[in-house]
């Protein structure tokens, strides 16, 4: 029986933060692919607030601990939205060129070890950024910065020959998704938004191929 293990590595959107059903997009995605003809095990390695600086330093240790020898081990990446966050008095958390360098290092290393898919930066929640907990520092997200980073990630993925899903463009054009950003935890979408994300990823041919005879 095929033993498929998938580590989803990234930030709060991988974690599903703000979802009242506690499923996020990865829980819904894997739920839709559950099949008793093989064993599907997925690991949520999303950390709320994580930047590419932090993900670069931790991904390998965390994934290796979950990937047994002999299993069909694979990785899905999503990160970047926290890099574009600006903290009042401190500026942007990770400058764009550093974010690109981090992404290149992560993707090169991951894809050199495991079959890899890369899901792009989601839209920034520009209307609902709250005060950072326990501080007087405000978090501000720029849609322009998120769009620019997504574009550069897409170009990088093409150079590295790693499948990249631009999830941002269809989400920006989806009124139901953009409305879901006002109903989550004031930072993220609610469950309806994550369901829309899951549907987009599930229809992606590269994800579907992992469950076909071609895998």
Explain how this protein is built.
By secondary structure, the protein is of the alpha/beta class. Helices cover 42% and strands 16% of the residues. The protein has helices at residues 12-15, 24-32, 52-64, 96-113, 143-160, 168-172, 175-180, 191-202, 205-209; strands at 3-10, 39-46, 72-78, 86-87, 91-92, 116-119, 139-140, 164-165. A hairpin with a 3-residue loop joins strand 4 and strand 5. It is globular, with a radius of gyration of 17 Å.
Give a short overview.
With 215 residues, the protein is α/β, with parallel strands linked by helices.
Blueprint (SSEs and pairs):
Layout: E1 3-10, H1 12-15, H2 24-32, E2 39-46, H3 52-64, E3 72-78, E4 86-87, E5 91-92, H4 96-113, E6 116-119, E7 139-140, H5 143-160, E8 164-165, H6 168-172, H7 175-180, H8 191-202, H9 205-209
Parallel strand pairs: 1-2, 1-3, 3-6, 6-8
Antiparallel strand pairs: 4-5, 4-7
Helix pairs in contact: 2-8, 3-4, 4-5
